[in-house]
Amino acid sequence: MLPYTPEQGTLADIASRRLAQSIVTGELAQGQKLNEAELAERFGMGRGPLREALRHLEGMRLVTRVPNAGARVVVLDRKTLSDLYAVREALEGMACRIAATQMTDADIDQLRKLLDRHEAQIKKEGGKVYAQNEGDLDFHYQIARGSRNQMLMDMLGSEQYQLLRMCRYRTSRNAERTLPALQQHRQIVEALAQRDGELAEMLMRRHINGAWRSISEMMDKEEAA
Amino acid sequence: MLPYTPEQGTLADIASRRLAQSIVTGELAQGQKLNEAELAERFGMGRGPLREALRHLEGMRLVTRVPNAGARVVVLDRKTLSDLYAVREALEGMACRIAATQMTDADIDQLRKLLDRHEAQIKKEGGKVYAQNEGDLDFHYQIARGSRNQMLMDMLGSEQYQLLRMCRYRTSRNAERTLPALQQHRQIVEALAQRDGELAEMLMRRHINGAWRSISEMMDKEEAA
DNA sequence: GCAACCTAGATTGTCGACAATGTAAAAAAT
DNA sequence: ATTTTTTACATTGTCGACAATCTAGGTTGC
User: What is the pTM of this model?
Assistant: First the structure.
């Protein structure tokens, strides 16, 4: 259950969502120049709303702007991703620790069901990447919700972490990590069920660290080629 | 050394900075309605750039917008601040742990000098609130820099954490906590100097936790009145 | 007197045009 | 031929006007 983005609102809101989606999925390449007139044309709106959308995205750090030179899609280099995963480890570790005391039994049960669905999906399709990706995000977001910390939820769910989704799309083609990841997810849920915050935090930190190492290796291979 | 914001740029950039400043200092009250035409008039610009600035601030979470009903200054209630301080504890704790291995001796020396200046200022003026405030922010930001994690620096220095500055302005009138805080800062620096990341993290977490308790108490008193 | 409805004013959302700036290609000079 | 200068074009920045929406006050009916 990702934060629901209603399909309506002002034109600027719509443009903002569509652009965010295009950036995150890689439809718009990293570093690509964003031409206002062209995008406005494509979305069927004036340049005004589109400029507002770009400003919003700038605040979200999905685009970078230079005065009088326009906006470009942000570029995720190795260092940026490394920094991001370090921050994730701290934030989501904390989320787990707090969630262990704050989540209701019903919440935890929902988490289990979510993982069941993931498992079924993996077995059926061998990991249709898109769904698997959003599913993993769901898991992490649900735990953030469990912490009852709105700021954490904002950071993970809607804003800053879009960068993460962006990275996922690039790196999730090899689905070899999905099964061990699911296993780790289950361990985390069990720790939460036992109300063991420290263990849950440790498992989550290890899980994220492992994910980073996997991505890092993949980038090494890509660079070698 | 807060991130330097040049006094130039597009009108939207200027409006964004001026608004952020006004919001953070409390010149614009929490929850206050932001009238586009009025603000545009005051800043001597059209409504276009001003709307872009509002969008940017929305991305920064300093204002909240409702379609067709305008923008309002964000309201920092007790829960929001509590969440914010929990996140701070995790992030700045991490910053300390990493900074202990990443900062150069020169960096640490600069940190000592910064604290010397703070001490002198406190003794001289009994804590001119504004300077003291920004000074404390400097300290925390320098440590984030020491972690060499750009994402962390962004989060602390320029964006999300503006909420924190906002809160500080409201709560820093009673300067009774400045001296113990300085003492804690010194302890943290010495832990960094000894390259003891774990200790530095622990001290920082305790420091932030103490700050939150102090603010929380103050809010209790205010509510009682 | 109270409530629902309607009207007038204010405010936000959007667009198109124009000015300012940056960029790249063509022309001129060495 | 290469470098510099100039010129033309594309893009961004800004403004003012108009349409859509919301809000408040008054009016009408019960």
Answer: 0.84
